[in-house]
Structures are given as structure tokens and as C-alpha cells.
Specification:
heterodimer, A: mainly alpha, two-stranded antiparallel ribbon, 14 helices, globular, B: 297 residues, mainly alpha
């Protein structure tokens, strides 16, 4: 009843090709965006903005990038955080060394740098597939972090390799309050997410999916494998690079190469899997779930301690957190291998009939 | 020249230690097509359990079988709880599940035994072997040679197990073709259970040797990462591949660190094996001994 697409006729090509062809989707997205842009800054406090919403949005962007590569083009990568690191350090160097460069241009160029690195490490994908490829993307992970640590030029010869993100300002307006930073990140993420949504239904997106499903068959029907795979790596790395720049500038402020370690890559891969492989919405759901889970477990430990009547040793708590995290991942994979996005699909199918049985 | 030979032999011997970890991966990959990322955590769990048991007053020779029992139980439980419900899922899902498993095992190990590093003494000293250095002037660690010997024994017993026993033949049949194996009446899940148990045993051996060498600590879990380039060099499906890959990685990484490292600032051990494996894969995409894949449309 609530979610019925019946009766919505399309009378022009433009209508047929719009991003959200169903009216309810359009309304929901508009409401969601209005709430995110207007409601959240009014309602949320500083903690929510800078400790919860910001990482969720930034990780959602990185997850989106990995999802384009893994979910749509079928190339498994374990080096996501390396591309984020390239983005963060490239943005730092552009702003540092090019006087007067606009912030957004610096972020975009940082994304381009990450894309170039992505192409280099994507080259082996033309020859190798599956887990062999996944393992070789680890080369990117270790090499990039090593290079950023080893060569002082990247961090402007700071003694510990840590970079201090410069102040963000656009046209004289400086983004230094949590609300301003949140709005900046939200705008960038929204734009890039819409672009991704469009991208995956373009000719290129369909080529990616053909390659994912079977690359030999895709080649036979005339898709250029070289171009398609490398573009997938480039665009995915661009997203990760921008996410890395935002991670350094809007979220952390100071960042060292070691922050972009293998753990972060795995976390982003988890977000893709939990959210739903090959789903834009899933990227956001997965990022929110994985970011919120540790916070949730943490807040849960307080009442648990009161219930037991004594304080648990902190080491015990952090180990329990790791155990619960691992177990939940396995549980999710068993119960819903298609991720949270699939749950949303099921909910939509239910809403189509609700409240009637048929 | 003498220095070169010393570095080379040291590298080859440490490569044997990588092979030990890699063999655990290969066993499971061959039999069930699962890329078991938790192998490093299993190594850590085994070493930590064994060392903690000895510190709680057990004799080493009593702690060893107890740990073995724990590892076998862990393997069987993994098969039962994690893998059986995930049968027929795409490989990436299984891979992710083993990453979750890795988190779980690491947390469990530290929850049970605490996070502080331990020293482990298995009775072999890490010192140069006197009569070799007298005879040839080369410094070769006794420990490395013993570890290589243990690895050789392990690999040959595994090879015998695979080729001579009934279970071993069943394992090879399952590795070859799951469905055909099922069709001739091989109990697939039982076989998988055995494979995971054997992988647990291999993890125990690797954990003891690595633990004795570097101390039993959280860093042992990173061994899995060291074993990965070994795997792609040798091919995921091949035990000889794991050995040869380990030797190549061990030797080349030490040589590169000594001869190339100074020019780029050192510390290249972390990524050199990966880049080497990557370049290698460009020539042979299935690794040295991997099965050649034939794509059919």
C-alpha cells in the first residue's frame, strides 16, 4: 500500500531514465536529504556530529569506492586504505605547496592522484583474478604506507611522519565548527554518491557488471577488458582518495601513514560485505553498522557492569568487543549473505502489500 | 661472497618457517576452496595456549598434546559452526567469514591467556652452529636448521598421509572435485573437519617454532600476511609450491634487504615479497605450481 509502483506511468524518455523512477523513492530521498542538511545540524550535538556522523559519512564514501570496484566490477581489493592514504597525503601536499589552491580543487586532485596509483596497482588485474589479485593488492597496501613513512617529503619532513591538516576554507569561509565540517562532508558525499548511482547504470556500469559476471564472456561481446578494469580501479581509487582526504581534514585533523593500515582496509571490506555487495545504499548501511557497532558495544558495557555489580577489567572488555565483532560478522554472513541492502529490499516488498495480506 | 652465502642460507631457512604457515593455508584451500585468513590467528592461538599451559604448571610434554586437542577442537568447531552453514556461498563470503573468525580467535586467545608477550623455550638455542663455522667459516643458526628439519619431517609425513592413507586419498578426491567425491560416497563434511584439524596441527607446529624464535606475542598473527606472497608465488593448491615459494620469498627478501635496502632507506622486507610475487604473477598468473585455469564461456 505504502510502497506501490503500480499506476506510475512514464510518458517521456526523461521520466523513464531518471535516477529514482519510483515516486516514493524520490520523496524518501528528498526527505532524507532535507533532514540530513537541515534537521541534523539543528538537532545533533557536537559529539554526534564529529564522533559518529562524520566517520559514518567518510567511511561510506570509501565503502562506495570499494563497492564500485568489488561489487560492480568484481575485482577484490585489500588495499583500500592505501588509496585513502594517497588521497590524504596528496591533499596535504597540494595545499602546502600550491599557494592559493581552492580546497575542493585540492581534494579533487588528491582523488586524481589516488586514481593514478590505483591504475598502477590495478594493472595486474588484467592477468590475475580472484584471490591472487586480492593478495597482490596487499602490495599496494604495504608499499604505499612504507613509502609515505620512509620519504619525508610527503609529510613535509615532520619528524614523526604525522601531518597536520591545514584549516579548511572555501572563498574565505573557514570550516572549523563541527556543523560546518559536517555540512561540507555531507555535500561532497551526497554529490559523489549520486554520481556513483548514475555511473552504475551507465554503459560503463553495465560493462563493469558484465566483467564481474564473467570477463571472458564480456570480452567476447566486445567489452574492452583493459579499459573497463583500469577505469574501475581508477574511479574506485578516486572515491577512496577523496574519502582519505576528508578523513584527514574533516575527521582526524592530524594523521600519520600508519593510520591507514591493513585493519582499516579490512574494516572497509567488512562494510561492503555487511552493507551489501553491489549496492550504493548498502555502502551507507554497512558503514553505519560497522562504525556504530563498537560504540554500541562500548555503551553496553556500562549497564553490564552495573548489572554484575563490579567493574570489568578494561582488557577483558576490549577483547570481548573483538570477539563479539568477529562473531557478528560470521553471524551476518550466515544469516544474510547479501547484506543489509537485501533486508531493505525485503522490507520494500513487505511494504508493497502492507497492511493487507495479499 | 661468504657474507652472500650466509645471508642466502639464513634467508632460505627463514623461508622454511614461512612455508610452515603457508602449508596450513594450502591444506584448507585445496580441500574446501576456502581461503582461510584465520591461519595466522590459529598459529597465535596455538602458541599462546601451549606457552600459557606450561606457565600454569604443566610439563611441556603434557601441554603439547593438550594444545593439540584444543586446536583440533577449534578446527572441528569452525567447520561445524562457521563453514557448514556457508556451503555454496561465493568464495569472497567464505573469505570474509574467516576474517571474522580471525578476529574471534585473536580475541579469544587474549581473553583466555592475557595479552602480555611470553618467551618460549623448546630446548634449541638460537646460536651459530660451532662445527659448521669451524669448518667453513659460515655462521648458521642451530635453531634455523632444526626448524628446517622439523618442517621437512612435517611435510614428508603430510605427503605420506595424503598419498598412503585412506583418509588422505579421500582428501585428494575432495580437493579434485567436491561433487564427484560426494557421488562416490566420501563424507564431505567429515573430510573438511579432518582438514581443519590438520591445519590446526600445522598451526601448532608453526606457532611453537615462531614462538620460540620471536616470542609468543600478538605479532604472530601477522605471520598470515607473510605467508600470502609465499602462497601466490607457489600457487594456492600446491604443498610443494608452498615450500618452494617460502624458500624464494625468504631468500630474496633477506638479499633485497641487505643489498637493495640501504639505497632506499631500509625496511623493505614488509612489501618486497608482495611486489616480487606481483611481478612473478604477471608472467605466470597461477603461481609456480598452481593449477592452470581454463576459462570456458
Amino acid at each position: 500500500m505504502l510502497y506501490r509502483e503500480a499506476g506510475q506511468f512514464k510518458t517521456s524518455y526523461a521520466e523513464d531514465q531518471q535516477i529514482f523512477p519510483i515516486r516514493q523513492d524520490r520523496i524518501a530521498i528528498a526527505l532524507l536529504l532535507a533532514f540530513a542538511f537541515l534537521g541534523v545540524p539543528l538537532l545533533a550535538n557536537e559529539y554526534w556530529l564529529s564522533a559518529i556522523l562524520m566517520p559514518v559519512l567518510i567511511f561510506a564514501l570509501a565503502t562506495l569506492g570499494l563497492n564500485l570496484l568489488t561489487g560492480y566490477a568484481g575485482q577484490l581489493s585489500l588495499g583500500t586504505s592505501a588509496f585513502m592514504a594517497v588521497g590524504a597525503f596528496a591533499a596535504y601536499n597540494f595545499i602546502l605547496r600550491v599557494p592559493g589552491i581552492p580546497l575542493l580543487v585540492a581534494f579533487a586532485l588528491a582523488g586524481v592522484c589516488a586514481a593514478l596509483v590505483g591504475i598502477v596497482f590495478g594493472l595486474p588485474s588484467l592477468r590475475i583474478k580472484g584471490f591472487y589479485l586480492a593478495v597482490s593488492t596487499l602490495a599496494a597496501q604495504f608499499f604505499v604506507v612504507w613509502a609515505l613513512t620512509k620519504f619525508g617529503w610527503f609529510s613535509n619532513y615532520s619528524s614523526s611522519g604525522v601531518i597536520d591538516a591545514q584549516k579548511m576554507s572555501i572563498l574565505g569561509y573557514s570550516f572549523d565548527t563541527p556543523v560546518a565540517k559536517y555540512l561540507l562532508v555531507l555535500s561532497i558525499v551526497t554529490l559523489l554518491a549520486l554520481a556513483a548511482k548514475n555511473l552504475v547504470r551507465s554503459a560503463m556500469g553495465r560493462a563493469w557488471m558484465a566483467v564481474r559476471d564473467m570477463d571472458v564472456a564480456a570480452e567476447v561481446i566486445g567489452i574492452r577488458i583493459l579499459q573497463t578494469k583500469l577505469l574501475a580501479f581508477a574511479i574506485s581509487s578516486f572515491y577512496c582518495g577523496v574519502a582519505g582526504a576528508l578523513y584527514a581534514y574533516a575527521y582526524l585533523g592530524t594523521v600519520e601513514p600508519e593510520a591507514f593500515n591493513l585493519d582499516l582496509s579490512f574494516r572497509i571490506l567488512f562494510m561492503v560485505i555487511i552493507g551489501g555487495v553491489g549496492s550504493i545504499l548498502g555502502s551507507f548501511l554497512g558503514a553505519a553498522f560497522i562504525t556504530l557497532l563498537p560504540i554500541f558495544l562500548n555503551t553496553l558495557s556500562g549497564p553490564l557492569e552495573r548489572l554484575l555489580g563490579f567493574t570489568l577489567p578494561s582488557g577483558l572488555m576490549s577483547n570481548l568487543e573483538v570477539i563479539v565483532f568477529g562473531a557478528l560478522i560470521i553471524f551476518f554472513l550466515i544469516v544474510e549473505p547479501n547484506g543489509l541492502a537485501r533486508l531493505w529490499q525485503i522490507a520494500k516488498e513487505k511494504l508493497r502489500l502492507w497492511p493487507f495480506p495479499h | 661472497m661468504q657474507f652472500f652465502v650466509e645471508v642466502l642460507i639464513g634467508g632460505l631457512l627463514s623461508g622454511v618457517m614461512y612455508s610452515l604457515v603457508a602449508i596450513g593455508f594450502v591444506l584448507i584451500y585445496k580441500a574446501s576452496g576456502v581461503f582461510n585468513f584465520a591461519q595466522g590467528s590459529m598459529v597465535f592461538f596455538a602458541a599462546l595456549t601451549c606457552v600459557s599451559l606450561t606457565e600454569h604448571g604443566f610439563q611441556f610434554w603434557l601441554a603439547l598434546p593438550l594444545t593439540l586437542v584444543a586446536m583440533v577442537a577449534l578446527g572441528l568447531l569452525t567447520e561445524r559452526i562457521v563453514l557448514r552453514p556457508l556451503v555454496n556461498q561465493p568464495p569472497i563470503t567464505l573469505f570474509m567469514a574467516t576474517i571474522g573468525l580471525a578476529f574471534f580467535i585473536e580475541g579469544l586467545a587474549q581473553l583466555l591467556w592475557g595479552a602480555q608477550p611470553h618467551g618460549l623455550d623448546i630446548g634449541i638455542q638460537d646460536e651459530p652452529w660451532q662445527w659448521i663455522s669451524d669448518a667453513t667459516g659460515l655462521n648458521i643458526s642451530k635453531f634455523d636448521v632444526s626448524a628446517a628439519g622439523i618442517a621437512a619431517v612435517l611435510v614428508s609425513s603430510l605427503a605420506l598421509f595424503f598419498s598412503r592413507t585412506r583418509i588422505g586419498r579421500a582428501l585428494r578426491a575432495v580437493a579434485d572435485d567436491h561433487q564427484a567425491a560426494l557421488a562416490v560416497g566420501i563424507p564431505l563434511q567429515q573430510i573438511w573437519g579432518i582438514v581443519w584439524a590438520v591445519a590446526g596441527f600445522v598451526a601448532l607446529v608453526a606457532g611453537l617454532l615462531w614462538g620460540a624464535r620471536n616470542g609468543v606475542q600478538y605479532a604472530l598473527t601477522f605471520l598470515a600476511l607473510k605467508a600470502l606472497p609465499v602462497l601466490i608465488l607457489g600457487g594456492f593448491e600446491s604443498i610443494p609450491g608452498a615450500i618452494v615459494g617460502g624458500l624464494i620469498v625468504g631468500a630474496s627478501e633477506k638479499l633485497a634487504e641487505v643489498y637493495v635496502g640501504p639505497y632506499v632507506g631500509g625496511g623493505i622486507e614488509g612489501w618486497f615479497p608482495y611486489v616480487l610475487a606481483l611481478l612473478f604473477l604477471l608472467i605466470r598468473p597461477e603461481g609456480l605450481f598452481g593449477e592452470k585455469r581454463i576459462d570456458r564461456v
